[in-house]
Design brief:
Largest sheet of chain B: 6 strands, mixed
Oligomer: heterodimer
Helix content of chain B: under 10%
Shape of chain A: globular
Structural class of chain A: mainly beta
Largest sheet of chain A: 7 strands, mixed
Number of strands of chain B: 11
Shape of chain B: globular
Order of helices and strands of chain A: EEEEEEEEEEE
Structural class of chain B: mainly beta
Distance between the termini of chain B: 37 Å
Amino acid sequence: DAGVIQSPRHEVTEMGQEVTLRCKPISGHNSLFWYRQTMMRGLELLIYFNNNVPIDDSGMPEDRFSAKMPNASFSTLKIQPSEPRDSAVYFCASGLPSNYGYTFGSGTRLTVV
Amino acid sequence: QKEVEQDPGPLSVPEGAIVSLNCTYSNSAFQYFMWYRQYSRKGPELLMYTYSSGNKEDGRFTAQVDKSSKYISLFIRDSQPSDSATYLCAMRRGNDYKLSFGAGTTVTVRA
């Protein structure tokens, strides 16, 4: 089991550029989450997918953020245009509804300059 | 007031000491309680979970839940330098997918 795989591990981009973060969940997991972690706000849930369908996107900060899950093995989180305040570590996590908790990927450290 | 409060630390202890970590919460509907460990530059890793009140032991780790006081704890016995990490508590309601996380406590175990 390779776990939840995220790419890239690090991303440095200029303000105004489009950023795409990628996630491959654990095979068989039908719940997928995108989180953002900052020192100030801790871990924040951005969006939750169940069976590839977005169930709760209330945590997506603005229209600049969008997420897709075209199939059970792939999801993207896109920021367009990016801003310096988007700098954070973005985590993808997957699991099953019966799980107590979820498995996190290693994260993408995004820096917007 | 945050739904889950966790002492931010940091906590520095000598090797072999007992580490005690705590969280309090306000939502009495929480039923599932978890502790995650997060090493530097890594994602959170599920360490322990418990359902409702009671204790659970796994090796050097013990998780306690006191629902009457809305208080959960994690104890690490015989702490090792490899236990140096940030520990986050998390909890959720019975049929809810949302995890409510504490802010995390950073622990350093000195060799």
